[in-house]
Amino acid sequence: MGRPKQFDPDDAVERAMDVFWRKGYAGTTPQDLVDALGIGKGSLYNAFGSKRALFERALRRYRDSQAAALVEMLEEPGPVKARLRKTLEFLARTDLADPDRRGCMAVNTAAELAGTDEAATELVRRMFARTEDAFRALIEEGQRSGEIAPERDPAALGSLLLNTVVGLRLVARVTENPDRLVRVIDATVDSL
Predict the structure, then answer these.
(1) Where is the secretion signal located (predicted)?
(2) Is position 180 within any domain?
(3) 10 Å Cβ neighbour count for 92?
C-alpha cells in the first residue's frame, strides 16, 4: 500500500498558479514550486508529472476562475455601458491593489510564451476568444436596447474591447498614476 498524499492537489494547483502568475513560467523554478506547495520534488513530479504540466493546470485554473468572473460581470443585469464601465473599473482597481502587480496571467503568458509554446498559446487564445465573444454579446445587447448605434460592427467592437483590456492590464502593472487607467476607461466607454 502506498503512502497517502500529504497535500491537497487542488490547493497545490492554486498555490502553483500564484507562483507562475507572479514569476512567469520561465522565472519559476522547481524549487519555487516545492517551497510554495510545501512538498518534496519527488512528490511534485509524482503528482503533476512536470513543471510544464503543472503550469498548464495552473493556467486552466486561472481561466476557470478569473476569466469566468469577467464574463459573469459582463452578463449582470443593467445598462450595457454601466456594466462595461463597472467591469473595467473592477479590473483596474484589482490590478492596482495587488502589491505584486501581477496583472493578468493570460496576458502575461501571451507576452512570455506566444510563439514558443503552442499549448499555452492555444489556452490563452481560447481565453481571449471567450472574453471577446462576451464583449461582442454585450455590444449586441446594447444595440438591441438602443444604447449603442446599430450600424456599429459588434465583432469589431468586441475585438477593440479585448484589446483595451489587454492594454489596461499591462499598463496597470507599471503605472504610478491611476488617472491614466481612468482616462482609458472613460474614453473606451464614451467611444461606444
Answers:
(1) none
(2) yes
(3) 22
What residues make up the domain containing 182? 59-190
What confidence tens digit (pLDDT) does each residue in 98-136 have?
999 999 999 999 999 998 999 999 999 999 999 999 999
- The C-alpha angle with vertex 83 and arms to 153 and 169, in degrees rounded to 5, equals 80
E strand or H helix at 190: helix 178-190
| 175-184 as b/e: b if 16+ CB within 10 A | beeeeebeeb
Q: Residue 64: how many CB atoms within 10 A of its CB?
A: 11
Find the distance separating the first CA and the last CA of the chain, reported in whole Å: 63
CA angle centred on 125, ends 127 and 76, rounded to 5°? 25
Quote the pTM value. Answer: 0.89
Would 97 be classed as within a structural domain? yes
In a domain, residue 16? The reply is no
Q: Is residue 98 part of a domain?
A: yes
CATH number of the CATH domain containing 126? 1.10.357.10
Q: What's the total number of domains in the chain? A: 1
Instruction: Report pLDDT for 132.
Output: 95
Give the tens place of pLDDT for each residue, 37-72. 988 888 888 889 999 999 999 999 999 888 788 888
Per-residue burial over 136-161, b = 16 or more CB atoms within 10 Å of its CB, e = otherwise: bebbbbbbeeebbeeeeebeebbebb
